[in-house]
Write a structure and sequence with these properties.
This protein is α+β, with helices and mostly antiparallel strands and about 200 residues long. The chain folds into two domains: about 70 residues, Glutaredoxin; about 110 residues, Glutathione S-transferase Yfyf (Class Pi), Chain A, domain 2. About 50% of the residues lie in helices and about 5% in strands. It is built from seven helices and four strands. A four-stranded mixed beta sheet has the order 2-1-3-4, with helices on one face. Strand 1, helix 1 and strand 2 form a beta-alpha-beta unit. Helix 1 packs parallel to helix 3, helix 1 packs across helix 6 and helix 5 crosses helix 7. It is globular. The protein starts with a strand and ends in an 11-residue tail after the last helix. Bound molecules: glutathione. The site of glutathione has 14 residues, from helix 3.
Amino acid sequence: MPKLYGMLDSGNCYKPRLLMAKLGRRFEHVEVSSHDGGTRSEAYLAMNPNGMVPLLELDDGRLLAESNAILLHLGEGTRFVPQEAYRRALAYQWLFFEQYSHEPYIAVRKAILTVPRRAAEATPERLALTLERGNKALRVMERQLGETPFLAGGTLSVADISLYAYTHEAGEGGFDLAEYPAIAAWLARVAADPGHVPIGWLP
Ligand SMILES: N[C@@H](CCC(=O)N[C@@H](CS)C(=O)NCC(=O)O)C(=O)O
């Protein structure tokens, strides 16, 4: 059975858990946490030298890091990865957007505001920057979701799973989702898709 190394309270780790649940695939969750140094242990660094979760271990022992790469691998050949070349590239576009323009602001703002050991990072400058850039990312999503029901078109894809993870809890980072009605409607659509599970779900 595949193993998913991850933290229960991490949006990046929620992404592959959510996709596994939707696919009805069996897997073992192995809790590895940055809160207790687990991601920095020698044993873990031997598996992922980047010291981050999530990490997928396949049945044959091969390893795969980076949440969005894991989504693409697990979703291969399913409804979650578009077959048509342009729509597939659109899904990639949103996955790269998530990592460069969304997660570093929306996820990080929530982390520095809510994780006690990161409180020193919550300087006025950092809070202002993450608020401004996070709202910029939300405006980009709002515009797209005013035109199409899901980010890469008419059907839910890995792009929606990836961006759902941190957008659905953006309020905890001080973002006002009431300003984004198309995003609010999309969050409800994603949560209504078959097989949805909440962030705290475990197999
Ligand atoms: N680009 C990576 C980011 C993963 C990431 O930031 N993981 C955090 C948890 S959300 C982590 O492992 N932090 C542990 C540490 O920094 O020690 C991905 O998408 O998988």
